[in-house]
Amino acid sequence: MIDVEDLIALVRNYNPRTNADLIRRAYAYGRQMHEGQFRHSGEPYFTHPVAVAAILTEQRLDDATIVTALLHDTIEDTKSTYTEVSRLFGPEIAELVDGVTKLTNLELSSAQSKQAENFRKLFMAMSKDLRVILVKLADRLHNMRTIKSMRPEKQAQKARETMEIFAPLAGRMGMQWMREELEDLGFRVLNPEARNSIIRRFITLQRETGDVVHKITADIRLELEKAQIEADVYGRAKKPYSIWRKMQEKDLAFSRLSDIYGFRVICASEQDCYRILGVIHQRWRAVPGRFKDYISQPKSNGYRSIHTTVSGRDGKRVEVQVRTRQMHEVAEAGVAAHWSYREGVRALNPFAVDPAKWIAGLTERLDEDDHDEFMENVKLEMYTDQVFCFTPKGDVVQLPRGATPLDYAYAIHTRIGNSCVSAKIDGIRVPLWTRLKNGQSVEIITAEGQRPQSSWIDIVTTGRAKAAIRRSLREEDRGRFVKLGQELARAAFDHVGRKATDKALRTAAKMLGLSDETELLAQIGSAELTARRVVETLYPELARSTAPEVDGQRPVVGLSQDQQFRRAPCCQPVPGERIVGITYRGQGVVIHAIDCPALEEFEEQPGRWVDLHWHAGRHAAVHTVTLELTISNDAGVLGRICTLIGEQKANISDLRFTDRKPDYYRLLVDVDLRDVEHLHMVMTALEAETDVAQISRHRDLSRKP
To answer: Given 3-state DSSP classes, what are the helix, strand and coil percentages for the chain, each rounded to the nearest 5?
Structure first.
């Protein structure tokens, strides 16, 4: 625990005129009140208020806020009272401590109606004195830093509350560093596997590419020196949660993410900011649509900076932020800048927006008693990537940006959406394709007998609405569509000399991502899918390729002229698959598929790995792949299987039985193929055959090179 004199020294670093006696009295009083109380970790409870006070000294806050931190749990958890705190430390500190106590008692993750009321109280407390929320955020930060000592279910509850309420609130108030740390601590509790996975991938990336941050930082500094501009340059990898959120939002794998590194250039003046921007865009290509000028158009919380994304080394995207030192202080401290001290004088930063104005703007158009509306309007301020609309009763419907009244109707209930005929926004009738905006009140008008129209698919944006409309359209005449689909499919299959069996249709449905053969026939009958496409999916004709023939002696790129090579017998890679080479002394290079389990034993021998890929073009059908089949034990079945493979222009180079039973055979068939597409064609044709019970690609790790 930090000693009282050490705490005073932390305050004196930025405020030499601090009232040391006040802090000593508060420290002693808090220690006395919490005597005999312990945290879950077993430490004396008073270590927590002291740690919260220390966090607030990092933000250079005034004496009243530091004392409030030391006393913030006394009224709630000890025999202390508001009257006593007011008598000993003055009405200002008593009000602040009481405000923090009220916030602590709010159950922010409780049921919707109760949460709404508590959210309103939270912002009412903030509107009186925003220092209350600064203490509460520091309190939550320390609790999250020490969350390991709590029960697992309590950890999860606190982490969710932090992610949903406190982290966005810190960000909305301009305290980005606190938002990032709160998100990371919450992410560590709620999804430790994902967080660790991202950290491991960063380590692997750094091992493969070296210290990218150091290299790009040096590049930016060099360009600024050439232009004779004085500025500090900092770089870092983005936080795990930020990476994870981007992966989820864009549905991308880590390897496909581009701007995972961020760089900050801090200079002396606004003029230098724009000069630096010019230097960066002259040296690196700017990414279109990724430039934002928050200097000329500041954010509503006072944040000012220039953001741009450029293609850096090796084409990797990096985000660069350019700002002055004063702007940087506001960006780091946020609203805390209003109470921060320097050299004993309160720092009135000209770039910060008055937080009282933000709170006033948030509450000016709200009914005093309408807690739900208040809460959702607060959310509008904190979450700008979504649209929050109100029902006529004041309930809130959350939708993505670009949503229409139809999306809103389906969000309430599928029945409401299906029977929707028109909509009113703020009492005015509007077309169903109108884009909704934050805070609008929406009323849906329905009519009995109304059914979804096919044109609605192009109006709605949410997956839920699209799925409900398609389902309704199909179900309306489903029986008729299925019958028509059967006729169309039978004719299409007869045309190529095949039967439209249940097995064939089931296989086609699976390949096209449909639930079953009935769904497939319904889509054929409703013209959503052509019978010809179904036939082509199962039996694609071999198109004559205009691509040049690849030399069968040198089918891969990445080997020297005199290097010998061979395909690994364990994974049997074929053109079109990702491959890697492993060198063997005296044997040349062995080519493996990138996902071959045999590669695990070479992980610690990077010197033996050779980066290879197949030549583009038409390969000869000389690449043997072993297929494992289970077929019916009936007359003529094996002959039909061999004929089917031959029809796909594939040669059988070997065939051996591994199991013979009265009703089925299991066998391995070696087939010579051109590429992975040829393999897919052969396997698809076999899978559609009624007498083929199972088919898979056979890989034999016992045949490792």
So the answer is: 50, 15, 35
Q: Which of 3, 43, 62, 76 is catalytic?
A: 76
The 3-class secondary structure across 480-548, one letter per residue, is: HHHHHHHHHHHHHHHHCCCCCCHHHHHHHHHHCCCCCHHHHHHHHHCCCCCHHHHHHHHCCCCCCCCCC
Q: Does residue 604 carry a catalytic annotation?
A: no
Q: Is 321 in contact with 293 (CB distance < 8 Å)?
A: no
Question: pTM of the entire structure?
Answer: 0.52
Reading the block at residue 3, the tokens are: 């000693």
Pull the structure tokens for residue 698. Answer: 């056979």
Q: Considering the candidates 43, 58, 77, 519, report the single residue annotated as catalytic.
A: 77
Residue 601 appears among annotated catalytic residues = no
The kind and range of the H/E element at 310 are: strand 306-311
**pLDDT tens track for 109-156:** 444 444 555 555 566 666 667 788 889 999 999 999 999 888 888 898
Residue with tokens 């998100």: 183
Q: What percent of the chain has pLDDT over 90?
A: 27
Contact 116, 372 (CB under 8 A): yes
Q: What class is the 623-697 domain? A: alpha beta
- Look-up of token digits 């010197």: 607
Contact 465, 455 (CB under 8 A): no
**How is domain 195-346 classified at the architecture level of CATH?**
2-Layer Sandwich (3.30)
At the fourth CATH level, the homologous superfamily of domain 4-190 is: Hypothetical protein af1432 (1.10.3210.10)
**Interval 453-486: pLDDT, tens:** 878 888 888 767 887 887 787 677 677 778 888 8
